[in-house]
Design a protein that fits this description.
- It is a single chain.
- This protein has 343 residues and is an alpha/beta fold.
- The chain has two domains: 3-61, Orthogonal Bundle (DNA polymerase, domain 1); 66-342, Aldolase class I (TIM Barrel).
- The chain is 36% helix and 21% strand.
- The chain is built from twelve helices and 14 strands.
- It has helices spanning 10-19, 25-36, 50-59, 119-122, 131-144, 165-176, 196-203, 220-226, 235-249, 267-277, 302-314, 335-342, and strands at residues 3-4, 60-61, 66-72, 78-83, 89-97, 100-104, 108-110, 125-128, 152-155, 188-192, 210-214, 253-259, 282-288, 318-322.
- The chain has a ten-stranded mixed β-sheet, sandwiched between helices. Strands 1-2 form a two-stranded parallel sheet.
- The chain starts with a strand and ends with a helix.
- The relative contact order is 0.12.
- The structure holds iron/sulfur cluster.
- Iron/sulfur cluster is lined by residues 111, 113-115, 118, 120-121, 158-160, 193, 333.
Length: 343
């Protein structure tokens, strides 16, 4: 059975090409056709010998996912639903902002972690995405972005990226490489619900990527209610893992905090959050909860949001409120896929 060529790092393709009796620089030429020129047909690789193109066709295919549905928001945000080779769906988003276009990438079909505010967790976990499928997703995001520009990537779509550690890390290394998309590591963010062993492992990878930890509560009982992963990894242990990560990598962490009215958004919650993260090289990104009809959550009003933010800032915590994007097209993760699967 042939395989997606995007499963392979350059050195892996080089050794296959050499085993076929060709010079290894042909692998760099193939990478250039695939990643720089976006070619989707081996026949178009005109600087390769015809027999090599035939070999490649026998052994590999070039494209896996197709765009099944695309929604474009008034603010330019795009929500894209991809159909995978096996008929499963994943969704991704393209978020243009001043001078940058960010792709929000899924790493799994569904998710095991069942966070209460997230539509992705509602339909359960199906499977991991392979490295090639993740790269196909990025490839199609790039193709669909304004002027085919994609400057930043955030692994914040469906799935827990650190639960699909090897495939996500391999895809990031390929995406980051000069022979492929060459998106700088500092422009790639992994967002985790807080898997402690994998945070530890990530700290030893020597990658300059950004790490974002979904906190969403500063109290174990509240966090366990909205993020069941907290039963396994408590806030105390998670804080220690983040501290170790910061010390080892010398990099700042971002804590994501979705403000949900009546759940985690009052001033006592803000004070607890200050106490929890004070002393860490970290910043807090406050996000207003999207209205997710399946979950019954809604954001607090502007006054409550401002008071929460000011409490953190007064406590010496670096804090921003992330602007909500694509609300008119339901850009919260998992909503498009969920709607599609319920049809
Ligand atoms: S927020 Fe992330 S970890 Fe939680 S259920 Fe959704 S996709 Fe999974």
């Amino acid at each position: 059975m042939n395989m997606n060529i995007k499963e392979l790092a350059l050195r892996e393709l080089q050794s296959i090409i050499e085993s076929w009796g060709y010079k290894k620089f042909a692998a760099a030429q193939i990478f250039s056709w695939v990643y720089k020129k976006g070619i989707e047909d081996f026949n178009a690789m005109s600087n390769l010998p015809v027999p090599l193109r035939e070999k490649l066709k026998e052994r590999f295919y070039l494209s896996d996912a197709v765009v099944a549905e695309k929604l474009v928001s008034r603010d330019g945000t795009q929500k894209i639903l991809f159909r995978l080779k096996d008929g499963n769906y994943i969704e991704s988003a393209l978020i243009p902002a001043e001078g940058r276009v960010t792709g929000c990438v899924s790493s799994q079909v569904g998710c095991k972690y069942a966070c209460a505010f997230c539509a992705s967790g509602l339909s359960g976990f199906k499977r991991d995405l392979s490295c090639g499928e993740i790269i196909d997703e990025v490839f199609l995001l790039k193709k669909n972005s304004p002027e085919q520009k994609l400057t930043h990537l955030v692994f914040m779509g469906t799935g827990e990226p650190l639960d699909n550690y090897d495939n996500v890390l391999k895809a990031i290394r390929i995406i980051n490489s000069p022979e492929a998309f060459h998106i700088g590591a500092r422009r790639i963010t992994i967002s985790t619900s807080g898997l402690i062993p994998e945070i530890k492992r990530l700290s030893g990878e020597g990658l300059q990527i950004e790490l974002s930890v979904s906190l969403h509560a500063a109290d174990d009982s509240v966090r366990t209610k909205i993020m069941p992963v907290n039963k396994k990894y408590s806030l105390k242990d998670l804080r220690a893992a983040c501290r170790d990560y910061i010390n080892k990598t010398n990099r700042q962490i971002t804590f994501e905090y979705i403000l949900i009215k009546g759940v985690n958004a009052d001033l006592r919650d803000a004070e607890k959050l200050c106490t929890l993260i004070r002393g860490l090289n970290a910043k807090v990104n406050l996000i207003l909860s999207n209205k997710v009809p399946e979950c019954g959550f809604e954001p607090p009003d502007k006054k409550t949001t401002a008071a929460f933010k000011n409490t953190l800032a007064d406590g010496g915590i670096q804090v921003t409120v992330r602007a909500s994007r694509g609300e008119d097209i339901q850009a919260a993760c998992g909503q498009l896929r969920l709607r599609h699967e319920q049809k």
